[in-house]
Amino acid sequence: VRLRWGLIGASSWAAEWMIDAFRAVEGGAVTAVLSASAERGARFAQDHGIPGAAASLDELLGDPDVNAVYVSTTNDLHAEQVLAAAAAGKHVLCEKPIATTVQDARRMVAACREAGVVLGVNHHLRSQDTVRTMRSLVASGEIGDVLSARCAHLVSLPPQRRTWRTTRPEAGAGAVLDLTVHDVDTLRFLLADEIDTVSALTVTQGVAASGIEDTVVGAMRTRGGVPVTFHDAFTHAHSGTALEVHGTTGTLVGQDLFGPEPSGTVTLRRGAVVRSVPIPERRNAYERTVERFAAAAGGDGRPAADGADGFASTATAIAVLASAAEGRAVAVEHL
Ligand code: NDP
Q1: Which of 186, 185, 187, 161 has its CA nearest to residue 174?
Q2: What's the pTM?
């Protein structure tokens, strides 16, 4: 279906990646943008060639020209905006985490289902060709039975992103809601399994303000009994990112694959033999996400990551925060 997008949030992610992705998919157009500041909204619309700058959420959602919205405001605002979009009958692509409470996440999934609108979540990593290749190899038994997995989402948060993410707890700041949610979605996709229990420790190393974690280490266990370790940070300038799955007959190692670009490598190890795994194509993961979303809005299939996936990653990240705060292992809530 041809999607005419309304942007809820004049965000940098919309500017840097999503507007291009919306326009790249056949028939896609960006019709209007909503900002809390009329001036910023007007400038954003002008800078990106968007015809309309809406004055309110009601105005944007009441625009008959808009048939889908992209919610990329700060994390605390996603829930009320998605609920309003569902009530207005618009399909919704929401940024991760979909909410900052499990209760809100549950309400959002239910509301979209009841309204008959598609809820997609912008977990782009499952649309990266590196991760897709790893998943196919795991699923086809290339590494035997999965024994464990390891995830290192270590970045140096760029200076321009050291805003609400590192200063405003009430906006849903911190490395867990920013990075660990992506890990969870990627691991669920890779292992075709659910995260059951988590245990985590957080620290603040100077990128985030006092009381907000900018580094987290922890462990998860899947329903299928696979142990996973994860290590996520805003503070690591030199480490790179990595995703490893260890099986009874081999290990897959993905490196530098957690960014927005379609980059990274995958290697397969068996004993002393290490071979590089060819990646058949390297598409823009956001375009693939939008393409799948548009198809789903037209009744063809499901979004790459849907509301249930967004619920799972959000609920797991919230369990990670609870574990770190309470110093105990926490069971993850499921839909
Ligand atoms: P931004 O900080 O760029 O935008 C978030 C909000 O901040 C905007 O909606 C805007 O409010 C406000 N804002 C933007 N610029 C200014 C400014 N100069 N002064 C004051 N307020 C401003 O956030 P991101 O684009 O980094 O993230 C938005 C969402 O996207 C988050 O949920 C994040 O987790 C997610 N994200 C997802 C990624 C992915 O790969 N899936 C990658 C990056 C982010 P207003 O709209 O009212 O103008």
Answers
A1: 161
A2: 0.98
